[in-house]
Amino acid sequence: MNRRRMLETLGGGFGMAALRGVLQGSAADPLAPRAPHFPAKAKHVIFLFLNGGMSQVDTFDPKPALIKYDGTPMPGPKIKTDRASGSLMRSPWEFRPQGKSGIEVTEIFPEVGKRIDDFCVIRSMYTDIGNHGPSLQIMNCGHQLPGRPSMGAWVTYGLGTENRNLPGFIVLCPGFPVLGSSLWSAGYMPSIYQGVHILNEAVEPEKLIQHLRNAECAPEEQKRQLALLEKLNHKYMARAGADVQLESAVRSMESAFRLQSEAMDVFDIRKEPEKIRARYDISDFGRGCLLARRLVERGVRMVQIFYGNFQPWDNHDDIRVHAKLAAKTDGPIAALIDDLKQRGLFEETLVIIGSEFGRTPMIQNSGLEKLGRGRDHNVPGFTVLMAGGGVKGGCTYGATDDFGFKAVDKPVHVHDLHATALHLLGFDHTRLTYRHAGRDFRLTDVHGNVVRDILA
Amino acid sequence: MRRFACLLLSFGCCLTARADDFFESKIRPLLAANCYACHTQSRMGGLRLDSGEAVLKGGKSGPAVMPGKPDESLLIQAVRRTHSRLKMPPTAPLKAEEVALLEAWVKAGAKWPETKAAVTAPGMKITAAQRAFWSFQPLRNPAPPAVKNEAWVRTPVDRFLLARLDEKGITPNRRAPKTTLLRRVTLDLTGLPPSPGEVDAFLADQSPQAFARVVDRLLASPAYGERWARHWLDLARYSDGLLAAGFDTPLPNAYRYRDWVVDAFNHDLPYDQFVRAQIAADQLPEKDRAALLPGLGFQAIAAGANDQVDVTTKAFLGLTVGCAQCHDHKYDPIPTRDYYSLLSIFKSSKVHESPLVPEARVKAYKDQKKKVDAARELIDEYIQTQQKMLVDVLARHTAAYMVAAWKLDRGEEPDRAGLDEETLQRWVRYLKTPKEHPYLNDWFALMAKNPTEAQVRKAAGDYQRFVLNLLDEAKEIDDKNYVAFGGKKGMKDERTRQYTNIVSLSTLKFYQWRELASGPYRVDGYSAPPGVYYYDPQCIRRFLTGVWGEHLDTLRAEYEALERDLPPIYPFLHTIEDGPKPADGKVAIRGDEHNEGEVAPRQFLTVLCKGEPEHYTRGSGRLELANAIASHPLTARVIVNRIWQHHFGHGIVRSASNFGQMGDRPTHPDLLEYLASRLVESGYSLKAIHREILLSNAYALSTEPNHEALEADPDNKLLWRANLRPRLDMESLRDSVLAVSGTLDRAVGGPSSPLENLNHRRSLYLTVSRTRLDPTMSLFDFPDPNGTIEERPVTIGPLQGLFFLNSEFIVGQSKALAAELARSCKDDRERVTRAYKLLYGREPDADELRLGLEYVSSGGNSWREYLQVLLGSGEFTGMP
Lengths: 456, 880
Prior knowledge:
By secondary structure, chain A is of the alpha/beta class. Chain A has 14 helices and 17 strands. In chain A, helix 8 (219-240) runs antiparallel to helix 9 and helix 11 (284-297) runs parallel beside helix 13 (330-342). In chain B, strand 7 (585-588) and strand 8 (596-600) form a beta hairpin. The longest helix of chain B has 37 residues, at 359-395. Chain B is globular. Helix content of chain B is 52%, strand content 4%.
């Protein structure tokens, strides 16, 4: 029985006008799939978050000047960094032109390098505050103070979700990034838009999703329970009055029943052929990428993967640790891109790879560090990669100065990145608003410009 | 001055002067009045409209003006509202003649007088119209209106509601059944369902006062405070810790604030005192101070002074003063200076610990803690010294270890004289793994060539020499850094370390050194094992013999003795107090602290003062602020509206924390005035307001739909029926499950504890984290405690269904309930009836009884499964 007919039955012969009243009087289904402002290619987002801060000058923003000036202070006026910083330090790794585009990529991301023609490398990112907390808040929620909805919440609020048996916004992390749940918060929005956080060290679905199975109740028994529940709820609604939200509350049990089998399936990466699994199953991050693909295939709106607990990419005292992290990141990203393409999902999935900020081209040898061979936080310039869903592949956008410190050519603020991501999903970021405390709020606050040059 | 400049210019060119005149008299005032709120320093859309250059440069969408071409100018398109996106001003269109003026100006070349620097928007002037805004006015005390159907009226509240319904010709619903009403009011006031005994008593009481007696009973129960405190804690963004990077910084005594709020509701602390306590309890008269001091937790859990301004104004005044941090408020008469005036008050205060024990006990604890810390440090230093020496000692046998390891690998018995067995085993393992540095390359190359013992001994000797030099080099570096830090003191100071550049070994040498001498290296996502010569504090003891070992034992014994004598930390309150130098701060222009503007004297919001605001001079000025807020009519309106909101599902003003221009207007203005006046007359008794509301006929209506009423008022704004609650909030839901299963722990107050299956305390007492929001709590819409929340959105999703189908909690509680029913009732019929009484506060009808009996007749787990269905049903998880 569809909803309308059920309401008519329950309503005991209301006219259609009254029925409309019932439907408008209650909040509409908050997760129903919705069309954006204009047609767009991207329908899903996979945000690969290398938390801690990936160094741009060691990965996707080559700076030959660092070789020349290695070990000397950065020319020009003294600049302010978060902590005492020393001389310029060359990257320990070589860069080589890759793909048809010839974009130079570091040797620690060889597989991403081979696929660089699928990516747009934004080399002129910048943000506002040099500390992890505020920068994470801005990158994830568009504002440096906590309490605002995250990008995933905005996207799910804007588009709803295509698979009602799964959450619309899923966050995977083997632990918690800095600031934890406030990074996938729904803020002042209904919490249905909040990211469902899954600790993805485990492989078994029942360990990934809370309450997925009932050890004491077979599916047949649950069906019997649901049949009774339906009868009781109908009687209740006939007495109390039909209400859309009440109806969805009582329906949530049926969706949950279906979710059990769907989640057991989608969250079980052991169902992948060994050959595919092997490409991902080298790290928590890798398994996260595989899960992300499986979830997006099933219609989940946005999946965000945090690389690891706390902030692994925060290599203050030894930048060479980046190679070890990249080794666990590079292959899975490549596999994800290949798989999305092979399944025809690449064009409708926006892939973003980035951090809360970059790292200084200078060495950080302050006394807090065990080994003075690392890099500090860098706010004025860093790199973010985008691919898929309407992004122009094989291009770079903007540039930092000769040393990779500051974005000087076509700077892109985090707000601009958000505006662009929303645009790729079909939204005018100035019109995707949520009314709270008497004001229309936006992900981009009062800022943000779409970076049109990177649109395909 | 401006006129004078124009006059001078007019000697040069009459035309220019006329254009300038036109600009100054017509265009500039028009722009200033309509555009400058957003298009000067704010640069909304990247656009400034306060200089000719800026206008030509335009904003994000391009130049605002094409001189001579009005049709092509974005500015004109925007004010004509013909542009697809830009329609300005956003509030209301300009008048046709104003648009015409702008068109004429652009057509004539958009001349901007050259001589003057950009004029910024004048400081915000609060207009008479703004002052006359409804929510800022003195309280009216309107007489309850006459209505047609006098018989329907039970309390004055009913008159206000019925009068509006009469106007619209809507007939209100009939009253809900008594059982429904009892369940509604009990959940509303206590967050728990009524017990079967309470149901029976209410059904049996046929007197007209029956319901009033129920309300009195509920208001007097401790559960009332537990329930209503939580509404307040949503506003106060209560949490058991402060937001910090990894985990919350614990606020171990935050629960004392929570318990104080519970107590305040239970004892009906007058609301004006409740307000004062949470702003300035430390400055209230001595006799009240101790009892009210915990209220300052409201401020102490803040994330700084800006947060204090924001939450204080939103929670008490229902104003979004926080919007004025970077610019004058866009909609309400709150100049940015007012924001900084309030900030000056809070910046003149600081977070404080108020001990709840005599000073002597505080001192005793602190003194002992100091001794414990010093003893700990002594041990650490001694061990570190020994660890370093041990590395030096062992390193001098490096060649011998390598040769012995080589022999062992070949299956030969080595000469173990002078070698430590564990260290030898470590060497065997160490030489089997590839290295990131080149210093063992020669050794590995030699190994590949089936070497003679002499060759091995030589290579090992070479390597030992290298190692000893490396250790020397490392020591030299340590010495240099020691000097750079300024000795031991600087080394211990985190800030000094942070801002001192030090020297270090080259990266590859460092790796080699780490593999020999360092403790384990751990960063997130990567770790390296400890060095072969490194022994951790637990293991080092076996190398220390004689007095060296005894010394460590003595140090450890001393430490343990001191720690045993350390009492548990004394209890204290998280509060604030005035800082040493209360002072007026300055406006931070555009919210930038480094860009100071005019002085912002400590004073109240201008628009809420009768005349000019009074400059606060008593310390921080918090007490004066507290009194101003507590006595303002706005404060009374806001709180009675919040109470209404939680009884009816929506406030009379729906935007419960925004009583400003952009907030909603009251659906029943006179009713709001009446209730606010009653609050003041009752001596700020919140319980009196509950009674005013709950004893009305309107509160008791059924939720049934009604065709005509739905047509006329689909959103039920006029309250012709009770609003159905599709799902209880997280606390009521969990507490109800525990209550009906007979497992609820009713202990009141005390420290928070995390949500887990064995924790059966009321949900109010669950730990609230700012970084690890409990997933089950947030699944049922528990709000993010990083912000103030006036109304929890209710969301429904399949994961909630999973919780009812499968969670250990629900399964366990169903079992407990089944066991209880098996014990207390004689047969299944009685058990089904009892279950309905417990869960729904009513008896089952014949059909429901039949369905229940059918279900449980299959035996096995069927009772548990049946009860699980009842717990997950809409009637239990919602509220009619």
